[in-house]
Fold:
Amino acid sequence: QALPAVDINLQDATRLVGIAEFSVSDAAVSLEEARRLGFQTLWPTDISRGLTNKVHWLRFSVVNSASQSMGWVFHGDSNYLDNMQVYFRDRGDTGVARAVPEFGSRLLTDQQPFSSRMLDYRKLAFEHDTPAGAVTDVYVALSYEQADAMRLEFSIYERRYFDDRSRAEYLLFGAWYGVLSVLLLGSLMLALIMRQPSAAYYAAFVGSTMLMWGLLNGVGFQYLWSDNVYLQNQGFHLAYLLFAFCAFQFSRHFLRLSDVMPRINRAMWYAQALMVAAAALRLLGSHDIVLMLSYLALASTLSLPIVGLRAWQRGVRHARWFCVAWLMYSLTLTLAVLNAATSFPGWSMDAVLAMVQVSTSVEVLLLMVAIGERVMQIDKERREALNLAHRDPLTGLGNRRLLVETYQRLVRRFEQTGVPVFLGLIDLDEFKSVNDRYGHDAGDVVLCRLADILQQHSRGDDTCIRYGGDEFVLLLQADNVETVEQIVERIRIRFSERPTLFGGQMIRHTLSAGVITAIDQNVRLSPAEILMKVDLALYEAKDAGRNRTIVRA
Ligand SMILES: Nc1nc2c(ncn2[C@@H]2O[C@H](COP(=O)(O)OP(=O)(O)OP(=O)(O)O)[C@@H](O)[C@H]2O)c(=O)[nH]1
Structure:
C-alpha cells in the first residue's frame, strides 16, 4: 500500500509528526506481520508513549523529486533508545511497471560498541541515499530491552543539513563540558590551596554531573567508553546513585549540617549508605530493586533546596546561593523527568537537553559562588582570630606577640626607607599602691586611661602595645630621637596632669619612661638587646625619682 510521503528536497529537517503512521505490537513481530497491523497517523499527542517495553512501528516513504540522488538521515530525539530496526526499499515512483524490490534491513542498537553504528552520532541514526526520481519506503521498529520512556519524535534531515546541525550541537556540548571542566579543576585547586574538603566534594559532584549527563546525552559512549556496552546500558543507575551520593556529601559538609541540623545530617548519611549498598547490589547483578532505589536517590536530591533554606534560616549565610542553585536545578530535573515519562510539557528532547545544560551550568556556577562566599567568610574569621590573638583584651592595644611581628616589619622598612626605629618603654609609678588603695577595678580603669592617651598621641603608623602588667611599649619610626622624646614626654605630662575619676574619687598617677634607638645607620639591636637596653633606661628613670623620661640614644 502507499505510505505517507515526505519530499527530501527541502534542505532542512522535517518532523514526521503529522506525516508518518505508527502502530504498536506486543513482541518483536516480523516485517510481514507488522505490515498487516493497523497503522494510524502520528499526531503530537501520540509522541510520548510513557514507560513501555512494547515495540513501536513507524512507516513513511521518502520521495526524491530531484535529478540527482539525495542523501538523508533519520533519527529520533531520545539519546537512550536501545534498538532501532530499519526496513527500507527503493522503487521508481513513475507508473513504469518494474519489479518492486524486497526490503533490506539494518539494526541500529546500543547493545554493540559505538563503532558498529552507521553514523558517528550520539543518537541511533539511519542514513540512506534515495536515487534520482525514486521513492524509499521505510518501516522502523523501535524497542527497549527493559521498559523505558518511549518517544516517537522523529525527524528526517537532508544529509548536508544534518551535518551543519550536529556541528552546532557538538559545539554547545564542547562549551558545556568546557565550563564544567574549568569549575572542576578550579574547585580542586581551591580544595588543595585552602584545604577545604567542601571544595573537593564539590569537584566530585561536578564530575558526577558530567558523567551522568554524558551517559544520558550519548556523548560519553561516543567519546569516552565507546567499547563499554555494559556501562552504556547498565551504567545509568550507577550514575544516578553516584550523582545523588556526591550531591549529599557536598551538601552535608558545605552547609555544616552536623552542627546546624544533626538529625537531617544523620538521615542524609543513612541515605548515602543505602546508595552505596544499592550500587554494590547493581554490580552484583541485581536490577529492578536498584532501578527503583536509583530513581529514589535522584528524587531525594529534590529535597536539597529545602535543606539549604533551613540551613540559611539557622544562620548559615552561604546557604542562600546553595538554595537558589538547587531550586533551579530541581525544577529543571522535575521538568525533564515529566517530559520523558508523561505528555507534559511536551517539549522535544533537544529542548530539554538545552535547558538542562544551561541550568546545570548556572547551578554549578552558583554553587561555586556559594563556595567563594564560604571561603571569604573563613578567611575573615581567620583574620579576626589572628587579630584577637594579637590584642590585649583589657585595653584593646596590641600585645607582646604583635611587638615581635611589628619589629620585624620595621626592620624591613628601615632597609627600604632608612628612617630610624625607636622604642619607648612606659611603666606606671607605684601602680601597686593604686590597686591597693582604690581596688583592682580602679587599677584597670587607670590602665585603660593610659592606653587611650597613648593612642591619642601616636600617629597611625606607630604601634602601641601593652607589654604586660603596667608596662606599655611605643614602637615607631621617626627622623630623630628628639621627636620621640617629645611624644613620650607629652604622654607623660598628660597622664600625670589629669587624674582619673573613679567611684567619686580622684586617682592621681604618674609614669616613668625609657626611650632608646633600636635601629639607625650605626645601631641595629636584636629584640633581646633592645629590651635589655630600654629596661636599663626605665630603671634609671625610676631610680632618679620616677615621673620622668630617660633617653639612651
Ligand atoms: N588593676 C590591675 N593591676 C595589674 C594588672 N596587671 C598587673 N597589675 C598590677 O600592677 C602592679 C605592678 O607593680 P610593679 O610593677 O611591681 O610595681 P609598681 O607598684 O608599679 O612600682 P614601680 O613600677 O616600681 O613604680 C602589681 O601590683 C600588679 O598586680 C591589671 O591587669 N590590672
User: Anything to note?
Assistant: Residues 394, 427-432, 435, 440, 443-444, 447, 469-470, 542 surround guanosine-5'-triphosphate (CB under 6 Å). The longest helix spans residues 349-389. The chain is about 50% helix and 20% strand. The mean pLDDT is 92.
